[in-house]
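Sharing in case it's useful to others searching the archive later.

Someone asked me privately for the predicted structure of ABC transporter permease, so I'm posting the question and my answer publicly. Question first, with the sequence:
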Amino acid sequence: MNRTLFGKELKSNLFVSGIIVAVVAMYIVVIVSMFDPKLGESLDLMMQSMPELFAAFGMATQGATMLDFLLNYLYGFLLVLMPFVLALIMVNKLVVRPIDQGTMAYLLATPNSRARIASTLAGVLVAMLAIVMVLMTVIEIGSSEAMFAGELDVGGMLQANAGLFGLWLFMAGLCFLSACLFSNAGVALWAGGGLVILSYLIQAVSQVGDKFEFLRNVTPLTLFDSYGLAAGEMAAVGGAMALYAAGIAFFLAGIAVFCRRDLSL
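And my answer, the predicted C-alpha cells:
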C-alpha cells in the first residue's frame, strides 16, 4: 500500500469515525449501567408487552449474566448497524465520490498502480473498522469493570467481538465491491449497502414469531451468532469464519474490478 495515501485518508476519516465511536460508547455505558436486577425486571415487563418488537431488533433474550445482557441489547442492532453506517460513509468518501467527481484522476496520474491505490483504500477502511473495534472493546471492558467489577466474562466477550469483526468485514467488503463495480454513484453506493439493509430487515422479520422463521436461512447475517461465539460453539465459529472469507473475497474482487474498470475521468 501507499503509506502517504493511507495516512492521509485515515486522518480524513477520523472525524466521522469519532462520532460513531462516541455514539457507540454512550450506548455501551448506558446499557452497562442498566445491568441491575430491578431494572432487569422492568425490561422483562417491557419485553413481555412487546415481544415482536424486541425480537425484531435481536433483543429477545433477557440474560442473567453481564455478558448475556450486553449480547442481547448491543449485538443484535447497535453494534451491527453503526459500523455499517461508518463503512458506507467511508466507501462513499474513499471510492464513490472521487470517481463521480473526477478527483480519482489525480491518484491515477501518480506513479502508483491501480492495484496499489485500491489496496490502500481498502486498507484504510479495514484499519478504521479495526480501530473502532479495539476502542469499543476497551469501553465495554472498562465500563463493566468500573460499575460491576468481576461480572463480565471477558473471554466470552472477546470471542463474540472477534466474530463480530467478521460481520463488519463482510458488510464493508460488499459495499467496497459495489463502489468499484458500478459507474453510477447512487447505484455504486446503494447496491451493496441496500443488500446489507435488506439482509438485516429479512433477519429482523425472521425473528418475529415462527411464521417467518424460514427466512433465517436466506440472509448471510445469520452466520453471526454472538451467543454461540461467546460459548465457543464450533458452528458459530464456522459461521464467523465464513463471514471473514466472504469479506476478504469481496475486497479482493473489488480491487480486481477497480484494476480492470474503464474509468472515464
